[in-house]
Amino acid sequence: MKKQLLMLAVALLMGTTGMFAQKKYAVYGIGFYNQENLFDTCHDAGKRDYDFLPGGRYHWDGLKYRNKLHNMAQALADMGTDVLPGVGCAVIGLSEVENDRVMNDLTAQPALKARGYKFIHIEGPDRRGIDCALLYNPALFTVKSSTLYPYKPFETKDTTFHTRGFLTVEGTLAGEDIAVIVCHLPSRGSSSVYREQGARGVRLLKDSLMKANPKLKVLVMGDMNDDPTNKSMTKELRAKAETAQVGTGDMYNPWYNILVKNNTGTLMYRGAWNLFDQIMLTPNMLAKKGQRDYPDLRFFKNHIQRMPYLFQTEGKYKGSPKRTTASGVWLNGYSDHLPVVVYLIKDKK
């Protein structure tokens, strides 16, 4: 497969001309996408997946499942292709996938199979049966290890509370040590305390990984069920809105200003945007102001993927993400969330 070494001039990347115009870079896309209930049609023992059975609330049958796989594979394959045509993302974190079976079926779809995508999934304790997973292109990202770290409440004594853990994958990208932590924090049906404690747990995990390997670059991504402005992100994860604010132990959250200044997001509730889907970066991935040389991986830019087919085009919910089902009606859509991508840049030797 063609390597993801897109040869871009500074005139394209930085909007400048002159002496830097012939400098070449490698660019890598890192994405996240909530799959909105990617269930198969079979019951998994011990899981509350009954809504997604042929006799369940959604009458989930083979036709609907096959269409869901096709649709999600199309969207996943298109992620990052606006910057990296024909290549797409090197790594994509996923939430709301049921099991290995759906991941095997997903990666077997022609749109993803053509790129050679592989996956990592570790069965978790969520009672509904939904987990996080990671798609990756092995021609670009080499996996070293994968671990599911459990969600552990710090202060509450509710020992019956079980939810998704933190899927942590360490590997190499562009010859550098990278760790990706994929999260799906507790829903807004739970107290904000649970999301705050989850974010604190992610921060402690990130800190422990970097203590073990100070050169490690960490990306925390997922459906946080909170906006970049909420306490879970700003205080517990210490994710800052501006690069100048990011200190040791902090993270950079490039989605804060997209929500606050651009008033847009990744999911819509009662006509207003939220931005729950985020990818945050450790300080060692940030470029200095005016930097033009990138001997190691640095953050370049980020955006919400807005492929036109992902949106509802008519009716009450026109302009919102086109879901698989809404109000009990099968829409043959995609997800109630939009995908997000960050791009990393490095000098091409």
In short:
By secondary structure, the chain is an alpha+beta fold.
List the defining traits of the structure above.
5-stranded mixed beta sheet; single chain; 349 residues; alpha+beta; globular; 17 strands; disordered N terminus
Structure in words:
The chain is α+β, with helices and mostly antiparallel strands. Helices cover 19% and strands 28% of the residues. It contains 7 helices and 17 strands. It has helices spanning 10-13, 62-78, 100-107, 110-113, 192-212, 231-236, 256-260, and strands at residues 25-38, 91-97, 118-121, 131-136, 141-149, 166-173, 176-184, 217-223, 239-240, 251-252, 267-269, 272-274, 277-281, 298-304, 325-326, 329-330, 340-347. It has a 6-stranded mixed beta sheet, covered by helices on one side. Helix 2 crosses helix 3 (100-107). The longest helix is centred in the middle third of the chain and has 21 residues, at 192-212. The model is unreliable at 1-21 (pLDDT under 50).
Q: Return Rg in Å.
A: 20 Å
- Kindly report how far apart the N and C termini lie: 20 Å
Oligomer: single chain
Question: What is the number of strand segments?
Answer: 17
Counting helices, strands and paired strands, the structural category is alpha+beta
Sequence-ordered SSE layout with sheet pairings:
Elements: H1 10-13, E1 25-38, H2 62-78, E2 91-97, H3 100-107, H4 110-113, E3 118-121, E4 131-136, E5 141-149, E6 166-173, E7 176-184, H5 192-212, E8 217-223, H6 231-236, E9 239-240, E10 251-252, H7 256-260, E11 267-269, E12 272-274, E13 277-281, E14 298-304, E15 325-326, E16 329-330, E17 340-347
Parallel strand pairs: 1-2, 7-8, 9-10
Antiparallel strand pairs: 1-17, 2-4, 3-4, 5-6, 6-7, 8-13, 11-12, 14-17, 15-16
Helix pairs in contact: 2-3
